[in-house]
Amino acid sequence: MLTDLPNILTLLRIASIPVLVALLSVHSPTANVIACVVYTAACITDYLDGALARRWHQLSELGRMMDPIADKLLVGSLLLALAGLTQLPVFSLYAGIIIMVREILVSGLREYMASQRETLPSTRLAKWKTGIQMVAIGFLIGGDGAARILGLSFLPATLIGGILLWFSVIPTVISGWGYLTAGLARIMAGQSRKSSKISF
């Protein structure tokens, strides 16, 4: 149900997006620190909603659908905001484009497969991909200004975020290719089953 705590946590992750974008738009190191706190809390809900759903036996189709959508909305919105605010270093804008293209393709594939009554389960590599992306975006949100406020002026946070975002492209592409091949195989198998029933 929508009122189950795991689903509420997922909705809170989505609700954090406009708050984060607004804080980034302030262009202030202090606002960036606050954004980091809000973002960290949002990332924690990504772990908690699934863990609590399994522990309390509150797994549902609604939660299974909403969880990856919340992740994609959070990552995609923040990548767009960071790109618009020119806070993506080391040409990581192109890494963000690759990530967005992959997410749109996989989402479209999932939607088509759902219309064919087929499913595409999430993989461990995809979870690693999301984790690396979230860490990278955390560094990019804080940036060097937040690092200075926190007494970590020696830490090139923006550069680290950009490099990590590029690093996340590896599991992003590999897992996306895996979803594509698995999805096409299931679609073809489903069509073969339908053809055999018709011929019979």
From TrEMBL:
**Where is the signal peptide, in residue numbers?**
none
| Transmembrane helix recorded as keyword | yes
Q: Where in the cell is it found?
A: Membrane
Residues crossing the lipid bilayer are 31-48, 69-85, 130-151, 163-187
Q: Which UniProt keywords apply?
A: Lipid biosynthesis, Lipid metabolism, Membrane, Phospholipid biosynthesis, Phospholipid metabolism, Transferase, Transmembrane, Transmembrane helix
Offer one Pfam family short name for this entry.
Answer: CDP-OH_P_transf
Origin: domain of life: Bacteria
What pathway is this protein said to act in by its record? Lipid metabolism; Phospholipid metabolism; phosphatidylglycerol biosynthesis; phosphatidylglycerol from CDP-diacylglycerol: step 1/2
* Major place of residence: membrane
Family the entry assigns? Belongs to the CDP-alcohol phosphatidyltransferase class-I family.
What is this protein's name? Answer: CDP-diacylglycerol--glycerol-3-phosphate 3-phosphatidyltransferase
